């Protein structure tokens, strides 16, 4: 039995879609909520309702489980830093109960830059989770991912909404030279799935990213071109944009960017280009070939609709 934690996340939905074609017995951990969970259709699975802080609920979710796939958690565009501490504690509870239940293996998706000494609480939380997993005594594989993109993401879609809401000018953080290595979400989901069958990945931590390096300015221009929204790029000091992001968080129910988003994009985040081909035998997708979802949409309307929709 496989337990998927974070099945309603951006990566989790892609992973569950791929699991449709496999015969693994599947259970998905769902946090109690007033709204129905956002999950792929046509998927058969057991549901376990529990928050990660509920030790009794997690213990029940682990019954009969052999492998845990943890693909949720704080990522780019995630909300406020006050969620970071709870996230770290939740992973520790999960690992503890997995060990008690005799779980054999855990595959965990972290982020490039995860570090206890990081200035960013969400990256500290990822590092805390990694340490709990490494010290658990369980077989583990940890994938530190670069920024993810794809339909329904927070990265390219957030940028597209921000561009649409910015008449004439678009304010870019810093000098625009921050270098990123965007990874298509389905490629990362494939690596998580293939890790189940590649024994050499046990006990290893891999930093993974897409096949190309881009500056933030190049990515912004690519999104403008795909979404047919041309703006004059104005390079702006990050403190000013952080102030603007804070104001946006106060005024809007669902701002397309937040302070963590600005902070994340202030630092280059790249890794070896050859990890996916070398370890997984996977040639990752080129970003320009996977941005069709940006075309033909009124991103200004998407921005407005998000502010008035109910639920998450």
Describe the structure.
This protein is of the alpha/beta class. It folds into two domains: 2-145, 3-Layer(aba) Sandwich (Rossmann fold); 156-179 and 212-268 and 286-307, UDP-galactose 4-epimerase, domain 1 (Alpha-Beta Complex), CATH 3.90.25. The chain contains eleven helices and 13 strands. The protein has helices spanning 10-19, 55-61, 82-100, 121-134, 156-164, 185-195, 216-227, 238-251, 259-264, 275-280, 299-308, and strands at 2-5, 26-30, 46-49, 67-70, 105-111, 139-145, 148-149, 169-173, 179-180, 183-184, 204-208, 214-215, 232-236. The chain has a seven-stranded parallel β-sheet, sandwiched between helices. Strands 7-10 form a two-stranded parallel ribbon.
Task: Detail the topology: elements first, then pairings.
Elements: E1 2-5, H1 10-19, E2 26-30, E3 46-49, H2 55-61, E4 67-70, H3 82-100, E5 105-111, H4 121-134, E6 139-145, E7 148-149, H5 156-164, E8 169-173, E9 179-180, E10 183-184, H6 185-195, E11 204-208, E12 214-215, H7 216-227, E13 232-236, H8 238-251, H9 259-264, H10 275-280, H11 299-308
Parallel strand pairs: 1-2, 1-4, 2-3, 4-5, 5-6, 6-11, 7-10, 8-13
Antiparallel strand pairs: 9-12
Helix pairs in contact: 1-6, 3-4, 5-7, 5-11
Pick out its properties.
312 residues, alpha/beta, Rossmann fold, UDP-galactose 4-epimerase, domain 1, 2 domains, seven-stranded parallel sheet, two-stranded parallel ribbon, 11 helices
Mean pLDDT: 89
Q: Could you tell me the radius of gyration in angstroms?
A: 19 Å
Q: What amount of the residues lies in strands?
A: 15-25%
> Using DSSP, what is the number of strands?
13
The helix/strand class is: alpha/beta
Number of discrete helical segments: 11
Tell me the name of the CATH class of the largest domain: Alpha Beta
Summed up, the domain count is 2
Biggest β-sheet: strands ordered side by side in the sheet: 3-2-1-4-5-6-11
Largest sheet: 7 strands, parallel
* Topology-level CATH name of the largest domain: Rossmann fold
Weakly predicted, low-confidence segments? 75-81
Q: What characteristic shape results from the CA principal axes?
A: globular
> What's the order of the H and E elements?
EHEEHEHEHEEHEEEHEEHEHHHH
Q: Based on the structure given, which CATH architecture of the largest domain is correct?
A: 3-Layer(aba) Sandwich
């Amino acid at each position: 039995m496989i337990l998927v934690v974070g099945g309603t996340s951006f990566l989790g939905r892609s992973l569950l879609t791929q699991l449709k074609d496999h015969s693994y017995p599947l259970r998905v951990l769902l946090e109690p909520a007033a709204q129905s969970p956002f999950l792929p259709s046509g998927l058969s699975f057991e549901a376990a309702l529990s928050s990660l802080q509920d030790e009794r609920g997690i213990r029940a979710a682990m019954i009969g489980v052999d492998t845990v796939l943890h693909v949720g958690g704080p990522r780019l565009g995630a909300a406020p830093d006050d969620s970071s501490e709870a996230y770290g504690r939740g992973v520790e509870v999960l690992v503890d109960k997995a060990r008690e239940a005799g779980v054999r293996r855990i595959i965990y998706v972290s982020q490039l830059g995860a570090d206890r000494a990081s200035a960013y609480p969400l990256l500290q939380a990822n590092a805390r989770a990694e340490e709990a997993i490494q010290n658990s005594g369980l077989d583990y594989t940890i994938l530190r991912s670069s920024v993810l993109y794809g339909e329904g993401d927070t990265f390219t879609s957030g940028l597209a909404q921000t561009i649409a809401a910015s008449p004439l000018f678009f304010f870019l953080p810093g000098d625009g030279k921050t270098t990123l290595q965007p990874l298509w979400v389905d490629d990362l989901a494939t690596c998580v799935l293939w890790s189940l069958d590649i024994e050499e990945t046990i006990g290893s931590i891999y930093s993974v990213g897409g096949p190309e390096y881009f500056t933030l300015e190049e990515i912004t221009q690519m999104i403008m071109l795909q979404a047919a929204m041309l703006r004059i790029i104005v390079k702006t000091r990050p403190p000013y944009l952080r102030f603007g992001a804070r104001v946006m968080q106060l005024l809007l129910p669902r701002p397309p960017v937040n302070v963590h988003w600005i902070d994340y994009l202030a630092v280059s985040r790249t890794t070896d280009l050859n990890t996916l081909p070398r370890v997984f035998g996977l040639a990752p997708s080129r970003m320009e070939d996977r941005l069709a979802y940006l075309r033909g949409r009124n991103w200004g309307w998407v921005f407005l609709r998000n502010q008035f929709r109910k639920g998450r």
